[in-house]
Amino acid sequence: MSRLPEAAVTRRGRLNYGKRSVKEENRQTGGLGEVLPPLSAHEARVEAYRCLYCYDAPCTHACPTHIDVPGFIKKIATGNLRGSARTIMEANILGATCARVCPVEELCEGACVLNAEGRPIMIGRLQRHATDHLFERGIRLFRPGRPTGRRVAVVGAGPAGLACAAELGRLGHAVTLFEKRPLPGGLSTYGIIVLREPVEVALAEAEMIAELGVDIRTDTELGRDVTLEALREEYDAVFLGIGLGGSPDLGIPGEELVEDGLAWIERSKFEPEKMTVGDEVYVIGAGNTAIDAATIARRLGAERVTILYRRSEREMPAYRHEYAFARKEGIDFRFLTQPVRILATDGRITGIECVRMRLGKADASGRAAPEPVSGSEFTLPADQVIKAIGQKKPELLADLGLATEKGYVRVDEAYRTSIEKVYAGGDCIRAVGAASTVMAVQDGKLAARAIDADLGLATAAAAE
Ligand SMILES: Cc1cc2nc3c(=O)[nH]c(=O)nc-3n(C[C@H](O)[C@H](O)[C@H](O)COP(=O)(O)OP(=O)(O)OC[C@H]3O[C@@H](n4cnc5c(N)ncnc54)[C@H](O)[C@@H]3O)c2cc1C
Ligand code: SF4
Questions:
Q1: Could you tell me the pTM of the whole model?
Q2: Structural domains in the chain, sorted by start
Q3: Separation of 350 CA from ligand 1 center, angstroms?
């Protein structure tokens, strides 16, 4: 009997985890299916044999969750896929998601010694091979720990919240996970494009975590349906993994006609068949979300998709490999260009008025600050504009009374916030560094261990 909400189970049943071919996936999703095919058993073994099983392996150091990479690869080489998946998931419970979404070029594969020969080990795809083996067969590796009698509330069922809940469940604490959306998974379910991760992978992981005894209550929002005070009273500790907010405003005339990039990506995951795309599409922003939004537009059939960015190619926040991918997809880039007005007739976009920019001195972010060149305004014909300029800071923090740093939750080295018994992790604390799924997973896991240690201390103190 599944413990996930009915919508999640139906969705998962319909998509049938891992059983469809990439071709079939693409046929059903109109070209939006997973880009990388799974490795066959033979391909995985051949790749695993190439690994040098380095001592003090740099790939393991480069992984934020410190997966024993040579350890799991050796198990693939010897045909022990279950053991391989265990090695991965002991360190990273969301190993199936991270196998797909991690920027491996920047992390483990980027650190592989075989880069010297130009062919690093395909660590991400091997990780996927091992973890898919489990989920395709419904194998469960972990059980709830012996009950401690302690109760912890986790808010937000994204990677941080799920990883925290899983670790707490394995340690024997009773966990209730509150999620405001209808499905668990956070951005893995709603934000990461299907080309990288199908929805059913995130849902299958959430189901596995529910089976660790975690009570997942969806459609339940902190600040609307429950208060922090009530959670602090009812539970021994509270973990906040609430991520970030929606898209910020552009603040230009005609903004109401612009598509929101996050909503655009979400629709591509749940109802691609209902989406309409223009011929001349512009995407504002040059981070990874902008590239994802542009890729969707291109794959849905837009004739021309152009990314507009106010700084130069050098400052763009997207990963280099994402930039190369976008170029391959036929996406154009227009740098040093700032939109100042959306032009429309009868409520339909006809163009974008822009101004050319030049780079000045470095700003607070350390990057050269763009300045408009006066008198350089020009118009680009357009019939669709999508904004993908990041996410707002978590909006709830002021109401909760939490101390913040640059708009993010301030935590100490043990993920404790300024409010007693309240911990936080994931994107909502990421005041510095690039936010990523694997970082959120590591936060959740370490915060759970910190909570466990603090609860242990509390027990000892109470016993004295
Ligand atoms: C479009 C996009 C693409 C991305 N692609 C990648 C990628 O390819 N690889 C990668 O590594 N990273 C990627 N990221 C970043 C990655 O998704 C995040 O770093 C990661 O999801 C952070 O996890 P989290 O749990 O902190 O937050 P989230 O995933 O945002 O989860 C937070 C959860 O909390 C819930 N919540 C919020 N407020 C409340 C409340 N008041 N009450 C109850 N629940 C609440 C939300 O509904 C959500 O489910 C991408 C981000 C975006 C926006
Ligand atoms: S660095 Fe490369 S070769 Fe060495 S253990 Fe890691 S994956 Fe294998």
A1: 0.93
A2: 39-137 (1.10.1060.10), 151-245+399-463 (3.50.50.60), 255-387 (3.50.50.60)
A3: 33
